[in-house]
Amino acid sequence: MPQENSSSPIIDLQDIHYQVPNDGQKLSILNGCTLSVQQQQSIAIVGRSGSGKSTLLSIMAGLEKPTSGSIRLLGEEISRLSEDECARIRARQVGFVFQNFQLLPSMNALENILMPLELFQIEFAREKALDALDKVGLSNRADHLPSQLSGGEQQRVAIARAFVTTPKILFADEPTGNLDETTAMQIQNLLFDLKETHNTSLILVTHDMNYAKSCDQLWHLQHGTLLPWQAE
Amino acid sequence: MKERLLESLTAWRWFIRSFRNGDWLWLFIAITIASASVTTITYLGDSIKHSMLQKAANNLGADLVLRSSRPIEQEWENQAKVFDLQSNRSLNLVTMALSENPKEVFQLINLKAVEKAQPLRGQITQGDELPFATLHKGAVWIEPKLIDLMSLNEHSELLLGERHFSLTGSVQSSSLINPMTQFAPQVTMLLEDLHETRLIGPGSRVTYELALAGSQKNIEAFAAYFHDRDPSFIELISAKAPSEDLEKTLDRAWLFLDLAALSAVFVAGLSILIASRFYLSHWRSSLALLRAFGGEDRQLRRLFAWQFLWIGISSSLLGLILGVLLVQLIIPWLESLFTPYVSAPLFSPLALGFISGILVLWSFAWQAFQEAMGTSPLQVFKSVSQKTSVAHWFVSFILILVLIGMIVQLEFLLWVCLVGIALSVTFYLCATLLLSVLKKSHAQTRGWLRISIAGILKQPELIKIQLISIGLVLFVLMLMTFVRQDLLNAWQQSLPAKTPNTFIVNVQPYQLNTVTSLFAEQTLQPDFVPMARGRLLQKNAKDLDPATMATQRAKRLLQREANIAVTGELPPYTQITRQLEKEKYQGLGVSVEEEIAQLFGIQIGDKLTFNFAGATKTYQVRSLRKVNWQSFRLNFFFIVEPDPSSPLNISYISSLYIDNKQVTGTLTQQMAQQASGALLIDVEQIIQQIRQIMQQAASGVSALFLFTLIASIAVLFSATLASQEARIQTWLLLRTIGATNRQIRLIGLTEFILLGLLSGILAASFAQLVSFLVGYQLLETTPQFSWPLWLGTFILSIGILFSVGWFSQKPYLKMSANQLKRHLTS
Q1: Taking 70 as the threshold, does the pLDDT of residue B361 lie above it?
Q2: How many alpha carbons lie under 13 Å from residue B225 in its C-beta half-sphere?
Q3: DSSP conformational letter for B379
């Protein structure tokens, strides 16, 4: 696998197009998106609901194939790779945080964090998971099921799970979308703190402009095209 | 290798974690039920079979008997030794016995000369009429009824041929197997004494027997060896099929046992199908997440398969434990039902139970497994629709086939599969139709009924699966009810309360008036049927050669003379199945029993030639008849039309029911004095033995039915819970808009009642339809419409669904809107 050097972008999108069939026609979601993300950089993508932010995020993570264009993730051209080859690149190098937390309801906080570690048979998994839980301030909630945690706590667990494998890139899809303002602020701070600690690049999709402005770069997805944000 | 081991441990950890928090539970319960059911039912079935076989073997005095009208060659006894079987030679002949003390009396007896006095299986039943001692040289055992018939006492002697024998005990004969030789009371002597009697000479009608006993495996091996050799003059009688009548009874009972096991597995399978759909969304979420984290397809497939394996193993093992506990509970009851009760080995039911548990999981959850494995990682961002591949259905189908093949006899596999496929497709179409009718009626309804119907229509695919599953479970229950009822009725009808227990045979035409008046004195009026002894020689002028016949039965029938009724009128209970048009009548006619016609390929209009004591006569086949051989009425393979121009040598035969033993004794003595040669044969003992076996089979059938019923109710409960989530969502919505508990309960219960009604319609109609098929094709019974059972299906389905609704709603009705919301998110 080609390794990226320190100066090469960790994600490089070139002229990404994405179309879906719609009533016999083709509906364009993305019309030539180009973006380059450097290591440890944080990027925010804003846009209206249905503008294609989540689709762009899934294409960047190799979860979906673009109709055309090129994507280099961690130095590897992934637009032509199979699902398993993409998975191999994501393994341990990519983390996710979702709007609806995506915690498994039948596993407690600690077990949810353990899951990616156990998937890759990482040693000292339990210690690492407990440490991650401690970092998000929930060491006393390890045995609690998601249903016994508040929304903010659930998102903290999800963040701990995302960082526990020390990924190089973190994709966050509206991580504060389901939370109240105060909790959202706490989660936002936590995410940035951990990003700094782990030297992780952050790709953030959000509606929250204040949150977005905390990132190194701010992009606006409009009519399927990524444009640098310009204050109105 | 190490990596795989670690993977299996990871899968185990994940399984235990989710299981501890309630995931997999319904699946676990369903597999446990399947495994426990198969273990228990197989054990029950095996024990019932073993006990019934033992009973039959005790009556036969052996596991197998070789019987022939010629001496059985030493080769067979040697071969029995090779198969490690015990043997006992014997010989039967009907002869006259004379007693001179206290008075001179002649009596027709069945003389049984045995190599060993004790039978190989079972015990002799001693009578207390005479002092009993072991059978020894120069002495005989006599059947108790001979004491009255010949006015015998302990000092009497019997002259048999040229030798006198002392009496050394009275012994009840075991007469189930060969009633024809038991028409006369039995006298048993040692084989070594027979020569001195000089009773056997040219032309003696002697039956030679070689009784064999040993392990089931060796007996089966010997039977296979025998069938390979296929000796022309030796008949093989097995305890498994001691007579054609009993063979059918036992076959039906055993088929029902197979059906019961199959139903239990099928019911549990449906439960797995529902449970797997229920957990599918959980599986998808976790798989989508694991894929997003970078899990590769093969790796995830292995991890997931390991979890399946772990749940299969753990729940099957629990099923086995439950099965063994159930068996322990059932054994005392079985012991009271079966005499003797033979406990079957547990190993085979345990192995079958375990394999069934694993197989039933993979068969019925395969679809959900594959659907889950096909989950796109994209699902972590948005829901993605998926279609199930036809190949997955095919694999599921093959697995179900293997499962069915393990439980039922292979010959029924195709039949069961065809019915299964046809039923599933038809059920699906009917469920779709019922839902579309419900959808149309939705617009016309108001208030709570409208909301209830909307609740059902909210998830049409899930409701279809529920309807099919609940309908199928109810259907299986109803089918078993119908079939069981038909089976019990058929057995009851074959031997009703006043089944003829007495035969009158060999009444010569000149004795008819005397015998009729003897019976009239006892206010009995037997109907006498004229008959002649004859042998089938030709079909359509072509010789029927025993050597070319494919079956032993056909060979035997061609070698022996049969009783042929000579009458223009068929008995009133005759069931004609095919008849020749009158305009095609030519010459004399014959009516042929259906199975015999099939055996020899006899068609309506064929010409059959018989040999009647040297005279040959040809008859045209005018009709085919169905005969119930278990009825103990006068039944004949052939009924020929009398020929006034050249009458046959006939005698008369009759059967009737006599409820007084004393009357039977008096008539026997009177006939011996006034109508010499005519015989009165008491078959009460045989009827009692057959009744006993049928009773045992009926008890076994009922026991299994009860067990399946319990398992089914558990499955119905789990099936309705599959859509609980959607229901709670509706209740949450209703509560937030201000609905009262009473209104919510009414809406919920109506939904359950509607489900019950729809499933009931599906179940009852299909149960009736298939019971016809099963009745006609497999059990050879005549099923009837049973309105009480139709009503029963509706009451059962609505009742169960209502109760399930009531109990499942109760905890949620106590919850606040916020608690409901939390419950949903968990």
Answers
A1: yes
A2: 16
A3: G
Residues of chain B positioned with their CB less than 8 A from the CB of A144: none
Structure token pair of residue A20: 């879906």
Structure tokens at B392: 């997955």
Q: What whole-number distance in Å separates Cα of residue B121 and Cα of residue B340?
A: 12
Residue B727 has a CB neighbour count (10 Å cut-off) of 24
Whether the bond into B185 is cis, omega within 30 of 0: no
- Which tokens hold the place of B391? 């190949």
- Is-contact A201 A232, C-beta < 8 A? no
Q: Give residue B541's Cα distance to chain centre.
A: 41
Contacts of A145 in chain B (CB under 8 A): 21, 826
- Tell me the nearest-neighbour CA distance from A116 into chain B, angstroms: 7
Assess contact for B378 and A63: CB atoms under 8 A.
yes
- Spatial contact of B682 and B501, defined as CB atoms under 8 Å apart: yes
Closest chain B residue to A117, measured at CA: B293
The CB density around residue B783, as the number of other CB atoms within 10 Å, is: 20
Q: How confident is the model at residue B177 (pLDDT cuts 50, 70, 90)?
A: very low
Q: How far apart are CA B326 and CA B320, in angstroms?
A: 10
- Output the pLDDT for position A144: 92
- H helices of B233-387, in order, are 244-292, 297-337, 347-373
Rounded CA-CA distance A108/A143 in Å is 5
Question: Which pTM value belongs to this model?
Answer: 0.69
Instruction: Indicate the burial class of B204 (C-beta count within 10 angstroms; 0-12, 13-18, 19 or more).
Output: exposed
Of B6, B376, B380, the CB nearest to A102: B380
Tell which of A63, A73, A96, A157 to mutate to test the B interface (max B CBs under 10 Å). A63
CA distance B764 to B474: 8
Are B250 and B94 spatial neighbours (Cβ–Cβ below 8 Å)? Answer: no
CB B670 within 8 A of CB B519: no
What DSSP designation does A9 have? -
The residue with tokens 């961002």 is: B381
Query: DSSP for B129-169?
Result: SS------TTEEEE-THHHHHTT--TT-EEEETTEEEEEEE
